């Protein structure tokens, strides 16, 4: 009775909780109504904004009407003015006609009156003063012009106003359309919200009705339970104390067994929680390892890209240098050198001194080259101990490749360990599930009798489960063997890693030599800049020489045009020149021999350069052989990605297997429940067919023994797994120790690779050699200046010779010569001048070649000095140098363009010379050239040049004015664009507000749909509860029938029988089952209400939390369970 009272109190508490939940639902409904009110307020605000826009529209329309009225008034005024003007014009035309008629009549009257009277007729006042009529007409015309201008201004203003009005009307029409769309959307939202509110109210009413019905059913059940208690109390008073005591003892045994099972379940749950925590920790470790692997792969890809870019840039720089060498080789063609050997004049004697000095400089340069070569050899011997840049880069790339492979292997091993751990955990879970199933089966066997058929069926099912367990045990043993093999592979890989680390410890490049390479690169840049300056100076010198030659050519032309040469002097000069030519030819032969020797030496140096290039190619081939290509890297990456995908597929398959196992467990639960239901029907036939307890106990003992064997096997496997796990942890620790050792080795290598004493000695040597080279460069610059001074002296001597020639020409004015002989002499002189120019250019080219050789030797020295640098700094320095090289190339291109322009100018001068020679040939028959014509032509040409310069200046001014106008137009366009952008930003802000309102509306629709779905789910759950309640009522009715049958039996037979005792036990067990079912339904109902509450709150607030998502998933699971 006490238990029944407690049950009644629990039911009352449940009813109170149900009422509280209903109140909470009502509160949530009120919150939803408040949310709808807020939406209505927002809708009202939109309507107010619409009204304000309408007011603005009316204002704009009024302003437009006023402007139209002003336009109409102006048009009427215009028309009135035009009518007045027309009237005035008509009036003046009529007056003029009348005046003409009067004048004609008066003229006729005067003719008639001449015969009678001789006095002249006095003219009228209107004829005497005709200007009085013209003055008002002029004033009217001026007024008309002013009115027309005003009219045009007003028309322009009206057009602008019309355009503004049109724009405003278009904007207003767009805003009106948007407002209409918003109104339609608001109406639709309002209608939908009203419908949804109605649906919610109907759903609430249905829920309340069902709650009241459930309360009535619960009360009815309580009454039935009370009646059962009374009936049992009456039966207990009729002397059945022995049976009750036996039942109590059985209940105590069941309770003790239940408590033991619950304790085991608690232990299993704690183990599951611990395994879940370990799984989560392993997942976190796996994620960290994956992130580290990704980061390392990114760093590897970035370093490889930088390396490839640096190689490409180096190749481009080499190509540019080759192009520059080709261009420099093309500057001095061989034809000029061949022409130089053919003809020479008396000026060659003066240039012999320059040639001898250049030979001396060449010998000095050769000595310097020999010194540099000896220094090179010494430095090569010294640099044997150092490591080259290419070797350093190769070692670095191999190290990076090995580290990447090791990291990948470590990550793969970690993934395999995690997969094994997951599989072990899954096996543990399956083991726990099997234990639970076995415990449930034991309870069923101990409490109730079993039929022969059901016993055989259960036996078959147990045999199947045992065979499945044996299979799983075999699978676990296979997995353990695989893990052992993987551990052995890890041992081997660890040994290989240690060996590779020991090999790599002896190979590293120092960081200190980077400064030497930077200094060398800076010196290269300075040398390039100095060479640019020298080239510019040489270019300016050549321009000066060209100008001087042009001036000399013009002076010679003037002298030839002004005076003739005598024949005797011509013959004497011819003999002298022939003798000098013979001498020069002998000297030229000697120079050819010396030139051949120089060319042989140049060929030897070229062969040495080719050998060096071959060595460079060999190094490049080694680089290509030892490096890994991008394609191989991508293939490896693809293979790794495929392995990762395979692992993911395996994971999905394992999860699918786990889900299948869960489904199988659910099916087993269903079968157990079905068996329980079948037991109710089987209990009526227990007296006729049953098996003795001894056989059941024997079979139970056999099953226990089998289960113990399975447990022992599982314990052995768990021990093996733990041992494997400990080994994996030990390997991880060892890997961490190896990483720390690698870091320490790197730090030691960075700090102490080369001793400081050697480094200082090398620095001193390098600085001394740099100073020597700088001194040699200073000496070369001094020699260049000396050459310039000698050149100026020779130019002065040329001037002296030209003055002496003029004196000779003045002496020989008496005797003359033919023009043909003079022209031949002139051509010979021009050829000698050109040959002298070629001589100068050839000497310059020889000097430049020697300077280039010195530079190449310096570059070789600097390359051997700068042995190794880190890749990142090397790429940075290389990029900076490439930028500077590009600047220098641009300067060189500019200089080349200038030289081309000068060549074009020289060609023009040559064409002019040819034209002058043609003119001279045309004037062969003439004895003397007219200086007056020449001066006149010159003056006309100068005047034309001045005119062209003036035109050029005017055109440049016009161009500047046009540019300013274009800039002003661009500024106006930019201002217009800014105004457009401001308008666009305003319209964009309005569009964003509209989008926000639409988003809010969509969120409200989503919340309403979520509420609808939650209400439907709650309705389904309530229906399921109703079905359960109906089932309970049916059970109660069955119990009533059984009680009635028992009461009839008691009346018929006063003594208790075995059947009566069995029926009472069955009834008690059914009552307990019903109580458990009620408690389960109550707990589920509470969970549903709490989830519903959280869901409603989140939907009202407009967001979805993680808890709410979890609750929704729980609702879906509960629904699936109910459906099952």
From TrEMBL:
Molecular function per GO: actin binding
UniProt entry tagged with the keyword Coiled coil: yes
Gene source species: Latimeria chalumnae
PANTHER family in the cross-refs: ANKYCORBIN, UVEAL AUTOANTIGEN WITH COILED-COIL DOMAINS AND ANKYRIN REPEATS
Coiled coil: 1-91, 165-368, 410-538, 574-678, 707-972, 1008-1084
Keyword list, A-Z: Coiled coil, Repeat
Identification of the protein by name: Uveal autoantigen with coiled-coil domains and ankyrin repeats
């Amino acid at each position: 009775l006490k238990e029944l009272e407690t049950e009644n109190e629990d039911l009352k508490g449940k009813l109170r909780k149900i009422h509280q939940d209903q109140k909470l639902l009502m509160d949530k409904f009120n919150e939803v109504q408040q949310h709808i009110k807020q939406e209505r307020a927002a809708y009202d605000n939109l309507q107010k904004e619409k009204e304000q826009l309408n007011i603005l529209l009316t204002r704009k329309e009024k302003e437009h009407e006023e402007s139209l009225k002003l336009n109409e008034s102006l048009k009427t005024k215009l028309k009135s003015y035009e009518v007045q003007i027309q009237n005035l014009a008509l009036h003046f035309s009529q007056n003029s006609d009348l005046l003409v008629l009067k004048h004609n009549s008066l003229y006729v009257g005067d003719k008639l009156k001449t015969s009678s009277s001789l006095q002249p007729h006095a003219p009228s006042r209107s004829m005497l003063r005709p200007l009085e009529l013209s003055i008002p007409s002029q004033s009217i015309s001026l007024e008309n012009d002013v009115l027309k201008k005003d009219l045009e201004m007003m028309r322009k203003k009206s057009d602008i106003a019309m355009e503004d009005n049109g724009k405003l009307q278009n904007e207003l029409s767009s805003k009106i359309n948007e407002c209409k769309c918003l109104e339609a959307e608001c109406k639709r939202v309002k209608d939908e919200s009203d419908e949804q509110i109605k649906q919610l109210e109907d759903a609430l009413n249905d829920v309340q009705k069902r709650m009241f019905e459930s309360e009535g059913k619960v009360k009815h059940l309580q009454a039935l339970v009370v009646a059962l208690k009374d009936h049992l109390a009456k039966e207990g008073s009729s002397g059945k104390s022995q049976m009750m005591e036996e039942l109590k003892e059985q209940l105590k045994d069941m309770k003790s067994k239940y408590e033991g099972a619950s304790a085991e379940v608690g232990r299993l749950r704690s183990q599951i929680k611990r395994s879940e925590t370990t799984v989560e920790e392993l997942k976190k470790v796996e994620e960290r390892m994956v992130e580290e692997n990704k980061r390392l792969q990114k760093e590897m890809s970035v370093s490889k890209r930088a390396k490839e870019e640096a190689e490409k840039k180096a190749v481009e720089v080499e190509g540019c240098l080759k192009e520059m060498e080709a261009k420099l080789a093309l500057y001095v063609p061989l034809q000029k050198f061949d022409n130089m050997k053919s003809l020479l004049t008396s000026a060659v004697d003066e240039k012999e001194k320059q040639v001898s000095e250049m030979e001396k400089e060449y010998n000095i340069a050769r000595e310097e080259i020999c010194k540099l070569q000896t220094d090179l050899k010494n430095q090569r011997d010294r640099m044997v101990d150092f490591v080259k840049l290419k070797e350093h880069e190769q070692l670095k790339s191999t190290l990076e490749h090995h580290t990447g492979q090791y990291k990948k292997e470590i990550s793969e091993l970690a993934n395999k360990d995690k997969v094994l751990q997951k599989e072990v955990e899954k096996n543990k879970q399956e083991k726990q599930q099997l234990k639970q199933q076995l415990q449930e089966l034991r309870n069923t066997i101990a409490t109730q009798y079993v039929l022969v058929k059901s016993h055989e069926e259960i036996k078959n099912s147990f045999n199947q489960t045992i065979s499945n367990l044996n299979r799983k045990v075999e699978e676990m043993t296979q997995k353990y063997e695989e893990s052992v093999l993987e551990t052995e592979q890890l041992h081997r890989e660890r040994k290989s890693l240690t060996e590779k680390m020991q090999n790599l410890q002896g190979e590293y490049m120092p960081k200190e030599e980077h400064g030497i390479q930077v200094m060398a690169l800076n010196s290269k840049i300075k040398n390039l800049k100095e060479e640019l300056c020298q080239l510019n100076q040489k270019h300016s010198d050549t321009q000066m020489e060209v100008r001087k030659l042009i001036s000399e050519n013009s002076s010679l032309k003037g002298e030839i045009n002004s005076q003739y040469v005598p024949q005797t002097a011509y013959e004497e000069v011819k003999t002298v020149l022939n003798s000098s030519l013979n001498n020069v030819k002998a000297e030229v032969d000697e120079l050819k021999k010396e030139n051949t020797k120089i060319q042989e030496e140049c060929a030897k140096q070229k062969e040495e350069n080719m050998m060096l290039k071959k060595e460079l190619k060999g190094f490049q081939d080694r680089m290509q052989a030892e490096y890994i290509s991008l394609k191989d890297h991508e293939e490896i990456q693809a293979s790794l990605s495929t392995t990762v995908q395979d692992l993911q597929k395996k994971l999905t398959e394992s999860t699918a297997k786990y889900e299948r196992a869960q489904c199988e467990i659910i099916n087993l639960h269903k079968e157990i429940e079905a068996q329980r239901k079948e037991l109710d029907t089987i209990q009526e036939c227990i007296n006729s067919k049953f098996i003795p307890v001894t056989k059941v106990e024997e079979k139970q003992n056999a099953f226990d023994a089998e289960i113990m064997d399975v447990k022992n096997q599982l314990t052995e496997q768990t021990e093996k797994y733990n041992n494997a796990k400990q080994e994996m942890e030990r390997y991880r620790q060892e890997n961490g120790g190896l990483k720390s050792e690698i870091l320490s080795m790197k730090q030691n290598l960075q700090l102490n690779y080369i001793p400081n004493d050697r480094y200082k000695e090398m620095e001193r040597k390098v600085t001394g050699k740099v100073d020597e080279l700088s001194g040699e460069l200073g000496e070369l610059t001094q020699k260049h200046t000396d050459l310039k001074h000698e050149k100026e002296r020779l130019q002065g001597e040329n001037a002296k010779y030209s003055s002496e020639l003029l004196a000779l020409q003045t002496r020989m004015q008496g005797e003359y010569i033919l023009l043909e002989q003079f022209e031949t002499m002139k051509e010979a002189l021009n050829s000698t001048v050109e040959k002298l120019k070629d001589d100068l250019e050839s000497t310059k080219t020889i000097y430049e070649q020697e300077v280039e050789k010195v530079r190449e030797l310096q570059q070789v020295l600097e390359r051997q000095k700068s042995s190794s640098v880190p890749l990142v700094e090397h790429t940075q320095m290389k990029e900076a140098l490439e930028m500077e090289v590009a600047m220098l190339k641009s300067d060189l291109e500019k200089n080349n363009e200038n030289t081309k322009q000068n060549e074009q100018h020289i060609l023009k001068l040559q064409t002019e010379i040819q034209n002058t020679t043609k003119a001279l040939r045309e004037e062969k028959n003439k004895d003397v050239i007219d200086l007056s014509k020449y001066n006149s032509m010159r003056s006309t040409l100068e005047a034309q040049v001045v005119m062209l310069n003036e035109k050029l200046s005017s055109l440049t001014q016009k161009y500047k004015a046009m540019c300013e106008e274009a800039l002003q137009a661009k500024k106006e366009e930019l201002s217009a664009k800014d105004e457009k952008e401001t308008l666009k930003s305003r319209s964009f802000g309005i569009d964003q507000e509209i989008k926000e309102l639409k988003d809010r509306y969509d969120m409200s629709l989503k919340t309403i749909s979520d509420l609808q779905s939650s209400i439907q789910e709650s309705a389904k759950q309530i229906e399921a509860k109703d079905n359960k309640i109906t089932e309970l009522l049916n059970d109660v009715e069955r119990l009533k029938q059984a009680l009635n049958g028992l009461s009839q039996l008691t009346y018929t037979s006063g003594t208790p029988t075995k059947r009566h005792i069995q029926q009472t036990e069955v009834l008690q067990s059914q009552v307990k089952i019903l109580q458990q079912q009620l408690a389960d339904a109550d707990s589920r109902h509470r969970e549903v209400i709490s989830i519903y509450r959280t869901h409603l709150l989140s939907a009202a607030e407009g967001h979805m939390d993680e808890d709410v998502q979890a609750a929704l998933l729980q609702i879906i699971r509960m629904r699936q369970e109910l459906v099952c």
